[in-house]
Design goal:
This protein is α+β, with helices and mostly antiparallel strands. It has two domains: 64 residues, Orthogonal Bundle (Serum Albumin, Chain A, Domain 1), CATH 1.10.246; 74 residues, no CATH class. It is built from five helices and five strands. Strands 1, 2, 3, 4 and 5 form a five-stranded antiparallel beta sheet that branches. Helix 1 packs across helix 2. The longest helix is centred in the middle third of the chain and has 17 residues. The relative contact order is 0.13.
């Protein structure tokens, strides 16, 4: 599984450019860990406490934008879409509820006291239900 996750990460995030080679390496390592255990939390997916701390430090870095991390995946998704005669683009809305946590930038959810954000991704899939990737997202 580790080798498969590493190969997937190298292909899916080829061309990743967050403006610093160290950030690119950290992003790929984090994606590799999460690909190995997609249902795991960040601490569960990481191999050590120091790797967990590094992952959270990476995610808190103001120079790292989620759009920059997704950019190579969006390009691979479009490549996979071009190989299909028909592609379904499915939108979803997910509530990310961070109620009770002190996080800057959160807004109200369904009522003012609940704090979090909405995630609106667009998934590309074939008519045979084969996932091609995330085509777009808005938060």
């Amino acid at each position: 599984m580790v080798k498969v996750a590493r190969q997937w990460t190298e292909h899916e995030f080829a061309g990743l450019d967050l403006g610093d080679a160290r950030l690119d390496r950290r992003a790929k390592k984090l994606m590799e860990r999460l690909a190995e255990r997609p249902a795991a939390s960040i601490p569960e997916a990481c191999d050590s406490w120091s790797e967990t701390v590094a992952a959270y430090r990476f995610l808190r870095n103001p120079d790292v934008a989620w759009e920059g991390i997704f950019a190579p995946h969006w390009a691979r998704t479009q490549e996979r879409m071009r190989a299909q005669p028909v592609v379904l683009c499915i939108q979803d809305t997910t509530e990310l509820d961070f109620n009770g946590q002190e996080i800057a930038g959160l807004g109200p959810l369904n009522y003012e006291a609940r704090r979090g954000m909405y995630l609106h991704p667009t998934y590309a899939v074939t008519v045979d239900r084969e996932p091609l990737g995330v085509l777009d997202a808005w938060m």
